[in-house]
Amino acid sequence: MCGIVGYIGKRNAYPILIKGLKRLEYRGYDSAGIALLNSKNELNVYKTKGKVSNLEHFAKDKDCNGTIGIAHTRWATHGEPNQINAHPHYSESKNIALIHNGIIENYADLKENLTRKGIHFQSNTDTEVIVQLIEYLLQKNDTDLLTAVQLALSHVVGAYAIAVIDRNNPDVIVAARKSSPLVVGIGDDEFFIASDASPIVEYTKKMVFIDNEEVAYIKRGEELKIVNLNNVEIKPEIEEVMLDIGQLEKGGYEHFMLKEIFEQPACIENCMKGRVNIAHDSIKLSALIDFHDKLVGAKRIIILACGTSWHSGMIGKYLFETYCKIPVEVEYASEFRYRSNVVGENDVVIAVSQSGETADTLAAVELAKEKGAFVYGICNSVGSSIPRATHTGSYIHVGPEIGVASTKAFSGQVTVLVMLALALAKSKNAISDKDYFEIIAELAKIPEKMKKVLQMNEKIADLAKIFTYAHNFIYLGRGYCFPVALEGALKLKEISYIHAEGYPAAEMKHGPIALIDDEMPVVVIATQNALYEKVVSNMQEVKARKGRIIALISEGDEKIKDIANFCIEVPQTLECLEPLITTIPLQLLAYHIAVCKGKNVDQPRNLAKSVTVE
């Protein structure tokens, strides 16, 4: 959840670290801090509650010199967001500073043991026990910093990505990870560390993704050294990461979220590139070619995901069951890993995660592999943990998503699921040529239809002004658009803090209808598909109780205009592709309501982009 960044080299570290923190602020923004080791061998730690801009203001009159430093932006787990609990944390002697992303599950026992040894703690965090333990073992065993870190981490239970600097080792950063992401960038006589590539890609494209229980020993003037906790040396695998810096900037938009909503047509084209051929009559996925028998022979598919990714997984369920004739279960990864589940070698597990670091999904993947299932990953972040943990998979290729509320990643996930379902159905001879060619041809038209929906941005912005008063919303959909209703409700509550719930439209009368009155906005996805008449009947039930209906309708539909209070027209498409069209107006509606309410849409309270803790 938190973001970490570090630098060692010839340049002044402070501006690099501050810029890096701003790039990582989507990972947490409760507090921020920085530790710098200057030429006088002074270890200065500055930290504040709130965002990186607060840290900049706090540090502007401080000594920010030094060519080695580490920095952190926090999403609080243990201890409220304040200056004391902010990272970096000092050791008791103030010789060592440490930053941490993750959760230490046995911190209470470690803290109690260290307290009995006379060590005093300043914060309420789980993180401080690591730096205190490192210093204790360093002094007790009269050893070096690397060994002390290895010994300390052998006592730690939980998830971590850490970076450590020591004023007695002024040319060294030691960094390590387990279940939380960490990348080392290799420059010209300089090194960078970060939670992901975004803060460091402008300085170097050469990166090493640190694996679980590996420790990076980064020393000025020497080559990068990677060892495990048992001090076995591991040859670093250097990857070249291609990332457009422009994707990390707002590009003239007021917020990243709005920019990313408008990027969706181009993102979908990128997602299909090299997979849907030029003639739009076939789909090729390398994973299906390389693992054909495993995927075609699946007796069951289990989709594991959390949040927005779970909603895309629900759409995947409809696709696989309809076109591949394979039974599908969609599970919350957090629940899957903690119950007795029957998974075997004939099952294919599809793990869906935007970040590729979602802790619950990653743990569920490992469990599925232990039980013999074949695991397919669908992720956005190249080099992240889930792609490396799965047997095969597909990247969605939508570019970095900075806004915490996911938008283009959802569309990319749905697009990959459509392509996978079609390719698998064709391989199984489970789909007719007519349906196969028709869906592919229509899929290729989706980016242009998305652009047409985006032209309604101003109209939706005006509509949003009417509903800033609301304290509750209901979203209704059927079939492929039921998950869209869930996703629309999630977007609204994530960024506007309005309570919203999504339901299958027919289920409304089994409870939620009790909530309907003249102050209840009800968003209904009512496009012209096989369930159109059923949805119209559900809308009549809402209207009879004076609910205020906002309807998403197909272009030219006059029938629903007589029922709904407000209508948003979208281009007609095939039912199985409707989520790619109908989601965008709901993203825009949530965005504009939140803006009208003065909320921070890119960094909503209590949320972070990459959920690396349980």
What does this protein look like?
It is a single chain. The chain is built from 19 helices and 25 strands. It is of the alpha/beta class and 614 residues long. It folds into three domains: 3-243, 4-Layer Sandwich (Glutamine Phosphoribosylpyrophosphate, subunit 1, domain 1), CATH 3.60.20; 249-453, Glucose-6-phosphate isomerase like protein, domain 1 (Rossmann fold, 3-Layer(aba) Sandwich); 456-614, Glucose-6-phosphate isomerase like protein, domain 1 (Rossmann fold, 3-Layer(aba) Sandwich), CATH 3.40.50.10490. The strands form four sheets. It has an eight-stranded antiparallel beta sheet, covered by helices on one side. Strands 5-6-7-8-12-13-14 form a seven-stranded antiparallel beta sheet. It has a five-stranded parallel beta sheet with strand order 17-16-18-19-20, with helices on both faces. A hairpin with a 2-residue loop joins β7 and β8. α3 packs across α4 and α4 packs across α5. The model has no long low-confidence stretch (mean pLDDT 92).
